[in-house]
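Researcher: Let's try something more involved. This one mixes different molecule types, so please make sure each is placed in the same coordinate frame as the others.
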Amino acid sequence: MVAIPSRHRSLALLAGVLLAQILMLAVQIKRDSRGRLIRVWAVSMVTPFERAGAWGVGNVRDVWHHYFALRNTSRENEALRTENDALRLAIAQLQSKAAEADRLGTLLQFKASNEKVAMMGARVIGASAGTASRTIEIDRGERDGVHRNQPVITPDGAVGKVIEAYRDSAQVLVLTDKDSGIGAMLVESRIQSPVGGTGEPMLTMKYVPTDETVNVGEKIVTSGMDRIFPRDVPVGTVLDVKAGNPFKQIRVKPAAKLDRLEEVFVLLTQESLDFQKEAEAQSAPGPSVPAETPATAPPAVVKP
Amino acid sequence: MNDTFELRRGDTHIEVHKFFPGAIAGVTILALTLQAVFPVYVRRLDFLDLPLLITIYFGLSRRNPSTGLLLGTTIGLLQDSLSGPTVPLGLYGIAKTVVGYLASSIGARLDTEHPLARFALTAGFFVLHQAVMVLTRRLLLAQPEPWFNMHLTMAAALNAVASVPLFLLLDRLRRSS
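Model: All components are placed in one shared frame. Result:
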């Protein structure tokens, strides 16, 4: 016990007696909303320590978890990285599937809008081995009814023609090949002239006389004069026009996405197709895939 | 215990008074009884705080802070007890503890036998008593109460006036040295 000097003894007694009475008051007093004052005081007195304790414990826990308890973190990190890579791969595959479903939906819609025209869906399974030619290989061949010189299209427009048909596959000469050609005409002026490839991504309209008027942006469709393509299949759009002698130099942007071909149609007849409906359907708001058509429709649906 | 002796402080000689046996207890009980009776029968005397005057008197006479504050505590708590359930135990107790302590401390340093000194000290202690009461009410009970007003000023003066004859009367309870 700490001895209290005699001169301070009465002061200590005063403090003790006052404190005792204050505590006694606190026990009796009941504040309306916060209960007895002694409780309020007790809580107020203890709360800072509790808060400090919680803060301290939280910090210690943080330090422990973030600095000391990391024995298995490296292994877990490795496992998570592996899992993350696998998930990213799965996401990429799913995105690819979704894109494929969109494309198939478009094809299905095109097929549905031209159901009277005999056509066959085909998947692009290969491309030309070198840069000297622009060809693609499709997974349909003679056994499916594919023959040479059959036109190949997409819902966007003309792609090319079959140049070789094998038993289960066929080669298609794409319009951009420099040996390719297709009977075409300008939509507004109705000028007919073949369109061919140059080995570049753009096409060329070859024999338009210099004195003819050709507007940039004008649409070009098939004329049917080559006896391969039916009439009015979109070929492209005039990109630029230069004067020449005796013919204009007209560059044409292909209507079909010739550098990104994955699914195509092989036309089995020369009946006219309705690309207008297709264009309207594509420009209409909402999903391009009909609601009743499953997005993951297999290519077999496209095949007749 | 009941002998009178002198407290030496330098050259000053202050007499510490002792009382007849049972005098303090009897006077305390009588004062508390009268304090409880006055509001009922003599309304005009409700300004008197006899327990306070007793605390002041015995504090000044005994001149021992420890016994002074304990006497103040006892009287205050008894007054709390007699004041009904609306007054929490300790309200008067705290105030009279402080008064008892200070009265004893002052009594040990000053000669408080002169009537004028008693008048002034009683008025001062009444104000202090009131201040401690208000402080307690405000801080602990959350009861806003005026620190002082004209009624309390008058009460302080009247208690101080009453203390002069009362203290002379109580002086008779002292044992002669």
